[in-house]
Design a protein that fits this description.
By secondary structure, this protein is of the alpha/beta class. 34% of the residues lie in helices and 25% in strands. The strands form two sheets. Strands 6-7-8-3-9-10 form a six-stranded mixed β-sheet, sandwiched between helices. A four-stranded antiparallel β-sheet has the order 2-1-4-5, with helices on one face.
Length: 254
């Protein structure tokens, strides 16, 4: 299967300031890629580069085989790159349904489809964005991105700041999205174990470079390696859903 989105030998940053060096990876249709790393290592810059908000000094970003690193952001969105920002950015003065309709595009999801994925939004369809809880706003942000019919969906820390019970519901929705669609997802997440349990592949960034790439399942199974790469204690004591599966250790490059 050919890559849907491919990044090759990418060197990028803001103006003359270089943040990312020699970044290469590929995402296939229906695949989930976890992008992990401590704060300030370049994860957000990588996503902003894919979206067209940074300066590319070298390398390529390709979508379905076409280099797009010089394309404007709106054009990248129109060919199928969706984005769910960390800040959510729902329209506070519009209802849930209006938030969805304003993002609707021919070939995209229908409101009924996103209500099936996020039943709580159906119950709140006439509520203003400003009255939604943080979890509901995050669900709405994802649902709104789906209305545009993305082939690749970039999610920037969707679990950030949410209560554990809301994280669990959102996790279940992302699993359903993964299993029922061919949308590729790139998931930036501080909750490493949750991200790995839903993902196929993983990369870990440090100081703007990839210091690990491989199977998400292998990294999930190797807590010692994961802690050394991320510099963090394990986030939860109980195994996350993905840890309950058998997994073998993968290789890593430093």
């Amino acid at each position: 299967m050919s890559a849907l989105l491919a990044v090759d030998a990418l060197r990028a940053g803001y103006g003359e300031t270089v943040v990312l060096e020699d970044i290469s990876f590929a995402v296939e249709p229906g695949q989930v890629l976890a992008v992990l790393g401590r704060n300030g290592v370049g994860k957000s810059t990588l996503m902003e580069t894919i979206l067209g908000f940074t300066t590319v000094h070298a390398g390529t970003v390709s979508f379905e085989g076409t280099p797009i690193q010089q394309w404007p952001t709106f054009r990248r969105n129109r060919i199928g790159i969706g984005y769910v920002p960390q800040e959510r950015e729902v329209f506070p003065s519009l209802s849930v349904e209006e938030n969805l309709l304003v993002a609707s595009r021919t070939g995209g999801w229908q409101a009924a489809d996103v209500y099936e994925l996020f039943p709580s939004l159906s119950q709140r369809r006439h509520s203003f964005g400003s009255t939604l809880s943080g979890g509901e706003q995050q669900m709405l942000a994802i649902a709104r991105a789906l209305m545009g019919g993305p082939k690749v969906l970039i999610l920037d820390e969707p679990m950030e700041g949410l209560a554990p019970i809301v994280v669990e519901k959102l996790y279940e929705s992302l699993v359903r999205l993964r299993d029922r669609s061919h949308i590729a997802m790139i998931l930036i997440e501080q909750h490493a174990e949750l991200a790995l349990s839903i993902s196929d592949q993983a990369i870990v960034l440090d100081r703007g470079r990839i210091v690990h790439r491989g199977s998400a399942r292998s990294l999930l199974a190797d807590g010692t390696l994961r802690d050394s790469l991320l510099g963090l204690a394990r986030e939860v004591q109980n195994p996350s859903p993905g840890e309950q599966h058998d997994a073998s250790h993968g290789t890593h490059a430093l």
